[in-house]
């Protein structure tokens, strides 16, 4: 067990809820014995061309997808969603990149999104937003309606799979690259593309299932692409160093194992994860990740290269020297943590089943006591991100099949920094 700095490991206790309206349970709460849809070839290995295909999808597939953008958002859930996202705020509160997000000053930016998942900002301050089930990517400019700009081909949305994480190249001004993690017919894969051009698969062979697909991708301070994967409902994969599942991967922008990884030639940065959907770095370059528990404990972990975070041998705090203990745990009814973001000395955690935004103080790599904000106000929360102007953006996930859909869902809410 890694030594714990001041603050130690925190178990959060949330304020009582007014009643759990969930039809089932949070995104991660499935017995490992359940038989879930699972696919993806497991003879995956490092240094083989089979997991880095470098193949492109024909441009005609992209064009066909773009022509269908207006039709793929039809929904029969009775919510007020026309299939076109609608602008809400036409004037925005000022925000300071040196300020602290004001969680009492939220403004709805856009309504009518369909299960939004990934969110990444472009250099001009606009954002790209992925819709999990439609395969669309929309560009959101505050004060204007969201514009469909891309349709990722071969997305096979089912269960928790579909179009998931997005990342924008740190050199976007020069290379114009956007990255996407998505579920295809028989695996999860990562593609790279320029808007209006066909994508190239840069990493494949990640097993997929109806649950535990991971999907968060983000560029770190070192310019490498970090990838959170799930165990695809096959817990043993998390401890298998030859499998990309149940891991945090560290790749070059071209999809190769990054130099300096714990095992040369391997993309694995850390292992023993169940389902990672949140990645964020503090000002010192330390990586924090959100981890879905099974029945007992959701987690926030400080990620160290080459370390083992215990799943499926351990859920939550296990003690001992073999596995790294989490810094923060929650009861699974309080969290189901998906996206995470760091602004200043606060870690923000979007909770799905918990239907709240957790704020956690940061101090020298340690975490303080979490505080629940926005409880039961917006429903399920998927992604939280800090915009270039310091504002905090938050997406709901009520149209993902597990939420109570409200008029206007799904939405993006902006909290200016003051």
Automatic annotation (TrEMBL):
InterPro entries cross-referenced by the UniProt entry: 6-blade_b-propeller_TolB-like (IPR011042), Glc/Sorbosone_DH (IPR012938), Quinoprot_gluc/sorb_DH_b-prop (IPR011041)
Region (Disordered) location: 1-42, 230-265
Protein's name according to its UniProt entry: Quinoprotein glucose dehydrogenase B
Gene Ontology molecular function, alphabetical: quinoprotein glucose dehydrogenase activity
Residue span(s) of domain Glucose/Sorbosone dehydrogenase: 113-402
Bias (Basic and acidic residues): 18-32
Keyword annotations: Oxidoreductase
Signal peptide: none
PANTHER family membership: HEDGEHOG-INTERACTING PROTEIN, HIPL1 PROTEIN
Pfam families: GSDH
Annotated EC: 1.1.5.2
Keyword Oxidoreductase found: yes
